[in-house]
Design a protein that fits this description.
Elements (H helix, E strand, L loop, with lengths): L1 E15 L4 E9 L2 E4 L2 E10 L2 E9 L3 E8 L4 E9 L4
Antiparallel strand pairs: 1-2, 1-7, 2-3, 4-5, 5-6, 6-7
Length: about 90
């Protein structure tokens, strides 16, 4: 089931300057840490002059959509889903 969240989160990420890749490694939401096991799609969009990076990632049992706002350097958890269909 997919659930919209829109909550601030903390993210540990890695930037590789050789490959120009920025990858989230772990997120912390409501005091619980979720190591990111796989990275899915990544895309960007703009709201005015603000660039947003959107990452689809997965932990062991949950899927997340993360938004990184490059204007204020804040991460937001936009959606969370488990592997159970509605």
């Amino acid at each position: 089931m997919i659930q919209a969240i829109r909550a601030p989160i903390s993210v540990i990420a890695d930037y590789n300057h050789h490959h120009h890749r920025f990858i989230p490694l772990q997120l912390t939401w409501e005091g619980r840490s979720y190591p990111i096991k796989s990275l899915g799609l990544h895309h960007t969009y703009r709201t005015g002059r603000t660039l947003h990076h959107v990452f689809s990632v997965a932990s062991d049992s949950l899927f997340f959509r993360l938004n990184f706002n490059t204007d204020n350097l804040q991460w937001t958890l936009e959606e969370i889903a488990d592997d159970v269909t509605n």
